[in-house]
């Protein structure tokens, strides 16, 4: 590669290809950019495509502060049950669902909005007694998967295709930990026909949109032409309030010193983005109260 990658810090909005694990993508990006510190902001199943936020260099320390919003375009096929709740698994049962109508299905979708109880798929990365569920499933062990509370902000119907095994396209906005495969399975159970996830694309994650993402091929091309620029941390941290420091304050803050605040700084329960007056991102701070007043303390210095 021609481009000097020794000081790459920030994010990559990767459009994950089908058939790749999130770990595969991290390993590929690590090789392409010749970086040791690379991480991702939210696992995608191998069969899924779409937004996979990748943190580069020091930005791996920012993953814990990123937005938790996620959005998907999902295709649910009705009349089918599989071991994995998607088309990657073994078919357990099929039955004609030709009697289903869009109106009937739409009437049941509302029960999957809001805060709901959800049982993750047996083939998932959740750990039970120190072991991944998919490892237990592959070993033939039967375990009870505990329910978890997840939040689904909105489900919108995009398209409906009737037939013996009808399919419905859904736009789903949700919080962290939500399994779209579980929604497909539970919708099929509610309809008494069975249902599986037939296709999944993540359209938004942690402030990153699919429209702005890069494929691995596009990333490679940009690197070869010395055009690659990492995404600013501010994109994934836009949900956090921010504070701007003068040049002198910024210098002292980056050295680990606490900076006296003014009346505009209250004591929040969430971190703050910290910027230099020239607009450059300095890191994450927290506001603390002391006998001398309100102080802005470094929590993570990025520069």
Q: How much is the radius of gyration in Å?
A: 23 Å
Residue stretches low in confidence (pLDDT < 50, at least 5 long) are none
| Mean residue pLDDT | 90
How is the biggest beta sheet arranged? Answer: 9 strands, mixed
Estimate the global geometry from the Cα principal axes. Answer: elongated
Would you give an account of this structure?
This protein has 303 residues and is an alpha+beta fold. Helices cover 19% and strands 36% of the residues. The chain is built from 7 helices and 18 strands. It has helices spanning 22-33, 102-109, 133-138, 180-190, 216-224, 233-236, 247-254; strands spanning 10-16, 38-40, 49-56, 70-78, 80-82, 91-94, 114-118, 127-128, 131-132, 148-161, 167-174, 195-205, 208-209, 242-245, 259-260, 272-276, 281-290, 293-301. The strands form 4 sheets. Strands 1, 2, 3, 4, 7, 10, 11, 12 and 13 form a 9-stranded mixed beta sheet that branches. It has a 5-stranded mixed beta sheet with strand order 14-16-17-18-15. The radius of gyration is 23 Å and the shape is elongated. The mean pLDDT is 90.
């Amino acid at each position: 590669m021609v481009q000097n990658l020794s000081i790459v810090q920030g994010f990559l909005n990767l459009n994950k290809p089908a058939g790749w694990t999130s770990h595969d993508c991290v390993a590929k990006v690590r090789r392409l950019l010749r970086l040791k510190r690379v991480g991702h902001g939210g696992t995608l199943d191998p069969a899924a495509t779409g937004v996979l936020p990748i943190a580069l260099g020091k930005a791996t320390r920012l993953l814990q502060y990123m937005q938790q919003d996620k959005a998907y375009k999902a295709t649910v096929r009705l009349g089918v049950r599989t071991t994995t709740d998607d088309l990657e698994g073994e078919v357990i049962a099929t039955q004609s669902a030709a009697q289903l109508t869009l109106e009937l299905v739409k009437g049941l979708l509302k029960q999957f909005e809001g805060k709901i109880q959800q049982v993750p798929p047996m083939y998932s990365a959740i750990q039970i007694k120190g072991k991944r569920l998919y490892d237990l499933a592959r070993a033939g062990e039967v375990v009870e998967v505990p329910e978890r509370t997840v939040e689904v902000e909105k489900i919108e119907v995009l398209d409906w295709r009737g037939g013996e095994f009808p399919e419905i396209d859904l736009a789903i906005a949700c919080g962290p930990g939500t399994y779209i495969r579980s929604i497909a399975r539970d919708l099929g159970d509610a309809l008494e026909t069975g249902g599986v996830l037939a296709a999944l694309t993540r359209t938004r994650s942690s402030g990153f949109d699919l429209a702005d993402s890069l494929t691995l091929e596009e990333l490679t091309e940009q690197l070869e032409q010395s055009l690659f620029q990492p995404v600013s941390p501010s994109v994934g941290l836009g949900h956090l309030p921010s504070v701007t420091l003068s040049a002198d304050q910024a210098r002292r803050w980056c050295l680990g010193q606490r900076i006296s605040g003014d009346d505009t700084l209250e004591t929040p329960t969430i971190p703050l983005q910290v910027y230099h007056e020239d607009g450059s991102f300095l890191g994450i701070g927290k506001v603390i109260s002391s006998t001398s007043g309100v102080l802005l303390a470094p929590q993570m210095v990025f520069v």
